[in-house]
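Thread: Newbie trying to understand structure tokens

Hi all, I'm a second-year student working on a class project, and my supervisor (Dr. K.) asked me to get a predicted structure for one chain before our next meeting. I've only ever worked with sequences, so writing a 3D structure as a token string is new to me. If someone could post the tokens and maybe explain what I'm looking at, I'd be very grateful. Here's the chain:
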Amino acid sequence: MQSILDNKRNDVLSLLNSGHTVAKIVRRVRVSKATKLTIENKRYCVQKIAKGGLGNAIQAKEELSHSLKINVSADTVLRTLKNYGLGVLPKVKKPDISDDNAKECLLWCKDRIDWTLDNWKRVIFTDELRKTRKHGGGRIMIWCEISYSRIGWLCKIEGNLNSKLYKSITDDDLDKCIDEMSQKLKLRSDQATSKQKKYEVMSWPAQSPDLNQLKIRRNEYDKPPKGMNNLWDKTREVWYEKITVEECQKVISSMPYCVKACIKVKGYGIDY
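---
Reply by user tm_fold:
Sure, no problem. This is what the structure looks like when written as tokens:
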């Protein structure tokens, strides 16, 4: 049982002698319950929120359970954070699209409002994506492509994707994909420059993840990857073995809907 200070003990005895009930004495004296978190545990939570990339008390609770094997409620963590001066902020609606980018996205969609599925079948979506291990531990950069008829190539990027590396990828992997599809296609590109060969590079609006068919699929691994090599192996496994042609067709077929929905909200985020 937790001991109380002498002054509080005297208050309790005085209230008992005055005939107060135990419940009323507890409310008036406010004897706090013992906490499961030590000072070090509390500082760990604060550090993870302030600098470790965690966003809320629930994530901090899970981090305590995963890393320190300490099981407490999210309310306990929230009280700890408040005691250290960390308040609750309203969640920012994502994507947080600027007004200028929303206008650009709206104009882009209006230019393609009459596109049918046949038009979108001729588009190859390419992008640079990040895959990150849970609870930290590094990340990898990948370049990938997808079209209506198939999953394209997956490339692991060492360093940053600059124009020289981008050109090397398109000259090799993308050309192979286009040769296999053997038809005239448009390439959806993220502002990277390349010499046009067998394809036409299509402009793409900034801050438009709801239109990006490569980012709508978020696969969770059965077991968390143990290292960077394992993360790359798991990414390839999901990409080549678990994403089917039917799923490719499903997401590309949604483009006419996405364009119309984006116009309806004037270029801002949509519910996919």
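A couple of things are worth pointing out once you decode it. Residues 163-181 form the longest helix (19 residues). Residues 99-264 form a domain with the Nucleotidyltransferase; domain 5 fold (CATH 3.30.420.10). Feel free to ask follow-ups in this thread.
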